Amino acid sequence: MQEISKGANVSLTALSEDAGAVVVSLGWTSATGAGDADVSVLLLDENGKIRSENDFYFYNHPAAADGSVQLLGKTPTANGDEDRISVDLTAVPEDVARIVVAASQYGGARFGDLDDLRMTVSDRTGEPLVGYSIEDAGVETAFIFGELYRRGEEWKFRAVGQGYETGLTGLATDFGIDVLEDTEPASATEAVPAAVPAPPQEGGEAAVPAAAPTPTPTPAAATESGAAAAPEAAAAAASAAVPAQTRGRASRTTRKKVTLPKVAKKSLAENDTWRTARLFPVPSLKSDREREVRATSVLLSVMAQVPELGRRLTAGFGAPAGRMQTFTEVPLPHGDTPKRPDGVIRVERAGKLWTALVETKTHGNPLKDEQVQQYMDIAARRGYEAVITLSNDVALDGSPVVDVKIDGRRKHKVSLWHLSWAEVAHQAQMLIRHEGVGNAAHAWLLQELLEYLQHENSGCHGFQNMGPAWVPVRKGIEDETISPDDERAVDVVESWERLIRQVCLRLGGELGQKALPVQRTRRDSDPRARRVAAAAALCADGKLSAELRIDGTSSVIAVIADLRTGKVRTAVDIPAPEGSYPLATTKRLLRALAEAPADLHVQTLVEGENGPRGTLERLRPEPGDLLPRDGAAPGGFRLSLIKGMGNTRGNTESGFIRGVDAAVDRFYHGVVAHLGAFEARGGRRG
Question: Is the CB of residue 141 less than 8 Å from the CB of residue 104?
Answer without folding.
Answer: yes
